[in-house]
Amino acid sequence: MSKSYKKALAVLAGLAALPLTIASAYGAEPPKSAAEYLAAAPAAMSMSDEDFAVAKALYFNRCAGCHGTTRKGATGPNITDENMKKKSYDAEVVKVFITNGTGGGMPSFGAGEMSEADIGLVANFIMMPPPAPPELGMAEITESWKLIIPEAQRPKKPEHSKNWKNFFGIVLRDAGKVAIMDGDTKELVNIVDTGFAVHILRSSASGRYFYSIGRDGKATMIDLWMAKPDKVAEVKTCHDARSIDSSKYKGKKGDFEDKLAIIGCYWPPQFAILDGQTLEPKKLVSTRSFTYDTNEFVNEARVAAIIAGHHDPVWIANIKESGYIWTIDYSDLKNLKITMAETERFLHDGGWDATKRYVQMAANMRNKMVIVDSHTGKQIAQIETGQKPHPGRGANWVDPKFGPVTATPHLGEATVAAWGSDPKGHKQHAWKVVRKVETLGGGGLFVKTHPNAKHVWVDHTLNPDDNIKRSVCAFEKADNAKKKCWQVADHGRVTHFEYNQAGTEVWVAVWDQVGELVVYDDKTLKEIKRIKGDWLRTPTGHFNVYNGMTDTY
Ligand code: DHE
């Protein structure tokens, strides 16, 4: 293909951006239809307008998170059409990968998640040049902002007598809703419409508000003091997003608590700072930048995990493809200060150590956890933990021999690795893997514990084996060899853990169309309750208010 032809294709791809049925996924209707883009593609790449739209929506929903919107790779490898051709792959080979998955953590989409026809469409789509997704600027973001209940009209104190700090927010992923549940009674409090494929919820510093973020970049703010907790504001700052957090630094006079929020975008590559009480957009910052090591320009430098400082007015944000961790000082938005620490590429998720001074993030394609000191914004260590660490927020506990440790499970191997995370009290073990606990298999996404808990819990959500993906393991903090693994359900995938406020009960989600939430006693590992209901569609992440506002994990 000549250079000029490629260029022409890219321009047409840009124009044709995102048509038909997937307006919901990428946002605004493109100026021209996909027909023009397809007309310019070589005959071998031909696809009907409708198929192209379906394939693009499927790619966005299933593949873009790991491989990138422009397919240059991150958690998953580079799958640009050019790279596929370089490897002599054709659509048939791509189909095999999509159907069966890989040992490295890619799910087997052929095992009931996608039809053969859909897999064929995505395989063909991947062999075509990627269409350029549209930008999203301040004017459109402001237009999307809805202040449903202004601050003055909100309750001055809780309008119910429930223990709202022990509420749970449950992501009902495919329903685009969030269920609010009472952690004391385990009753449903309300179901709130949020946005397409909600990814996570984070609590405000006071705990009064839940902020949710959907894959479509729509943020929703839920007020838990209302008689029936409901949304009070929403805004869409990205076409594709995974992270949101609030300002948690108290300051001298509580200056920053609940005052600001931040959304990290996958596309366009940017973050947005919002008013924490109203979600009014205040500032946009592009994260398009250069890789830390080779200084190559990365157009798709996405914002992955964000965590909020408790000791300083900062957010810490992973810039996935560039390998930088940005410490964003929000104390002066007019003169925003960002410290850019060189760490490692393909940053994904992570969280605090127990003292909330050290930021511990996975560079999962490089098999490492990287450690940044939030007081200085500088990287202080890198730890090789195993194949593709995926900690979620991670888990902190005190090991009887090594002192305070933090742990991660792995996508690519059957272990939980724990490293020393107390450089002051236990210098000799700091930032070294001190324990490895075997699990049932790879595909582990989340590990969790609580300061009051006896156990540490780990899942196997993306394991290709039906029994393993539905099983969890719990091992004792005091003696990791004391471990129990069992199957939670005979359907779906089992994912994510959250403790109640007291740290005595653990909630686990069974993720499919007939979802369940299973609550266990942490001490005895006995099942306390199995929550079911028509409304419980595709539960994934579940978040306790108190643990969220205090970053207890
Ligand atoms: Fe997540 C956290 C990105 C797939 C459920 N997920 C995160 C974070 C990122 C991320 C960057 C950290 C946010 C933060 O802390 O600010 N997730 C991605 C992806 O790119 C990926 C791999 C593919 C995609 O297309 O989205 C992906 N994630 C999944 C899932 O398949 C899960 C299991 C279900 C779903 O909703 O799609 C899932 N991700 C979660 C959950 C958390 C999360 C529950 C929060 C963990 C916590 O305890 O804080």
Task: Describe the 3D structure.
The chain is 16% helix and 36% strand. By secondary structure, the protein is of the alpha+beta class. The chain has a domain at 3-126: Orthogonal Bundle (Cytochrome Bc1 Complex, Chain D, domain 2), CATH 1.10.760. The termini are far apart. Residues 1-33 have low confidence and may be disordered. Heme D is lined by residues 65-66, 75, 173, 199-200, 242-243, 304-306, 348-349, 392-393, 445-446, 461, 495-496, 540-541.
Per-chain topology:
Elements: H1 3-15, H2 23-26, H3 34-40, H4 49-67, H5 81-86, H6 91-100, H7 116-126, H8 138-144, E1 146-147, E2 167-172, E3 177-182, E4 188-193, E5 198-203, E6 209-214, E7 218-223, E8 230-236, E9 240-246, E10 260-267, E11 270-275, E12 281-286, E13 289-290, E14 297-298, E15 303-308, E16 314-319, E17 324-329, E18 337-342, E19 347-352, E20 358-363, E21 368-373, E22 378-384, E23 395-399, E24 403-409, E25 415-420, E26 433-438, E27 447-448, E28 455-458, H9 466-469, E29 471-476, E30 483-487, E31 493-499, E32 505-511, E33 516-521, E34 527-531, E35 539-544, H10 545-549
Antiparallel strand pairs: 1-8, 2-3, 2-35, 3-4, 5-6, 6-7, 7-8, 9-10, 10-11, 11-12, 13-14, 15-16, 16-17, 17-18, 19-20, 20-21, 21-22, 23-24, 24-25, 25-26, 27-28, 28-29, 29-30, 31-32, 32-33, 33-34
Helix pairs in contact: 1-3, 4-7, 6-7
Bound molecules: heme D (DHE).
